[in-house]
Amino acid sequence: MRRGKKIAFLGVLLGLMLVLSLAEGAIPPILPPFGRIGLPNIVVLYCLLCLGWREAGTMVLLKAGFAFITRGAVAGTLSLSGGLLSFGAAVLLLVCTKKRATLAALGVTGAVAHNAGQLAVFSFWAKTNVLPVYFPLMLIAGILTGFATGTVFRLTLPLLDRK
Amino acid sequence: MKWVSKRDLLAMAALLLAALLLLFLRPAKEDGARFEVLAGGQVILSGSLKPDREFVLSGYPGVTLSIRDQRIAFTRSDCPDKTCVRTGYISGPGQVSACLPNGLVVRVVGGGGVDMVLKRAVREPHMECGRV
């Protein structure tokens, strides 16, 4: 892809990611605080698998930056920690399995890591360690929502490839 | 790429089972439970969950806390996201509701103190955090 075209494409993807995160925020979480489905993660997964890890990492950073500007330091760090951790976990999984990880596994790993990262940052802001209390729920929600995003990604992949 | 493998399903089922087991090993509601309000990590107020009442925190004129049926909730807040209000009532020891923009955390503690509480359980999660 030519440079200009790629930048435009990444811009569109970032826009999609922000809209997805907004739409998701409008739905009350099924299981607060982890009930969010994690739709923006699909875009990150797409970047990771079809474009490269640099592009995916950039998306995570830009989204956190956007949250930081529009919703403040708390939301920004929550987005950054969750995003970076789920991104890191997905990359690690791909490397460990020599790129043979399934989409469902990628989704679940990302979602659980995302929740763990956000809980850690939440504990930091609230100066209250909530990790032990929320661990089981974090795991359950991560598995369910991660499986859902992996499945949605599987369904959208053929459409995206058609370009 | 493959969607899902048998190994994935097995791993997910095992993890789900383990998590559910952890959940059910924990008590939910406790008589004589108390609440604590923390600002910046320091306990600024604590009290009983009886009787039912409603109060404004001193120093935080925009925040109202309500206690009903031994449960406590943020019912009004001047913060932009209102996640604390949407969290609703919390009751079990260890449950947390937070208004991060105001730096406020409300938690329910049992008779055993904070360390016991952290090892104890929640059946419903309630806090401000989520996919951002």
Q: How would you characterize the overall build of this protein?
A:
The complex is a heterodimer of chains A (163) and B (132). With 163 residues, chain A is mostly helical. The model of chain A has no long low-confidence stretch (mean pLDDT 87). Chain A has a single domain (3-162), classed as Arp2/3 complex 21 kDa subunit ARPC3. Chain A contains 5 helices and no strands. Helix content of chain A is 83%, strand content 0%. By secondary structure, chain B is α+β, with helices and mostly antiparallel strands. Chain B has a domain at 29-119: N-utilization substance G protein NusG, insert domain (mini-chromosome maintenance (MCM) complex, domain 2), CATH 2.60.320. Helices cover 23% and strands 29% of the residues of chain B. Chain B has helices at residues 6-24, 83-87, 113-119; strands spanning 34-39, 42-48, 53-56, 64-68, 71-76, 96-99, 104-109. In chain B, the strands form 2 sheets. Chain B has a 4-stranded antiparallel β-sheet with strand order 2-1-7-6. In chain B, strands 3-4-5 form a 3-stranded antiparallel β-sheet. In chain B, strand 6 and strand 7 form a beta hairpin. The two termini of chain B are 28 Å apart. The model of chain B is unreliable at 113-132 (pLDDT under 50). Chains A and B meet through helix 3, helix 4 and helix 5 of A and helix 1 and helix 3 of B.
